Amino acid sequence: MKIRKIDKDNKTLAVAVPLTKGMDKIRIKKRSFFNEYGLPVSTKQKPFCQQCYIEWQIGYDVVIADKEKLERTTIKDKIFTGANGKEKTLYELSEYVDYFYKWGVVSKKQLLEIKEFLEGLTEVNFIDNPRNFAIERSQPVEQDVLGIKFAYTRVMYPMLIHRFGEYEILTEIKITEKQYAIGVQPMLYFCFPITELQSDVPILGRCAETKETADFMIDSGNIGLFVTMLKIFGILSKAHNHDMRMVIDKIVN
User: Cα(20)–Cα(211) distance, rounded to whole angstroms?
Assistant: First the structure.
């Protein structure tokens, strides 16, 4: 998502969050407890309530060759080579941390400690290693459904939840099969209550307007969440680990 406003004096970033049409990377959902499975909300038909939250598959880079997506980042010159061999620059997570590093809120020591931690990991440590978190399938049993015989089995996908302090702000890691290759892929989502958003018109109790957005404010009080997510991204897989170390190098240098 794009940064709508950069306030250097007050050291804040306003990130515009869409409240209507669901995007690939962000959805508005509803649940009663932080570890409950969230259900999508049609925000133009159902009013926002206290149980609504944002599920954001936050990114950390954008490919230089993709000119359309490149316009979404405000940092186009910190280029690095990703684990997939593509030239990339900072975006979203890394973009936000970069601003607060320049503003002196995030220290070089903090970032280099994360890089040193990530450099010490091996493939057996990563979350995508099936020895750590495997997708489980039960033994099939015969099941009759309306006279048609099926082999019934249950598939259980691992999910890891990291809660930031006592707040309902958290990171969820969902482990699923890769779509076009053999193996699994951990997907990271940043989740926070709808009440974290700022809007000129109060959000609760009403439906969303067409193409409406609201601001998620990043400041010195919550940038630590994003720094922690750099570390979490780095333990997902060997490829993520490589990218996070490259990202940190670009920020501190």
Answer: 6
Q: Enter the tokens of residue 210.
A: 């067409």
Q: What is the pTM of this model?
A: 0.92
Task: Report CA Rg, the chain.
Answer: 20
Read off the DSSP letter of residue 178: -
Nearest to 216 by CA among 201, 194, 192, 197: 197
**Of 161, 175, 218, residue with least CA distance to 6:** 218
Domain extents for the chain?
A: 3-130+157-252
pLDDT the model gives residue 238: 96
Q: What are the tens digits of pLDDT across the range 146-198?
A: 999 999 999 999 999 999 976 688 999 999 998 776 788 999 999 999 999 99
For the sheet with 39-40, list strands across it: 39-40, 26-30, 52-56, 184-193, 170-177, 159-163
By the 8 A CB rule, do 141 and 149 touch?
no
CA distance 141 to 153: 7
Q: How many CA atoms lie within 13 A of 148 on its CB side?
A: 4
Dist. CA 183–CA 160, nearest whole Å: 18
Q: Which of 102, 132, 118, 111 is nearest to 13 (CA)?
A: 102
Give the number of other Cβ atoms within 10 Å of residue 80's Cβ.
19
* C-alpha–C-alpha distance, residues 93 and 2, integer Å: 11
* Residue 31 · residue 1 · CB < 8 Å: no
Task: Mention every residue, 6+ apart, whose C-beta is less than 8 A from residue 176.
Answer: 135, 157, 184, 185, 187
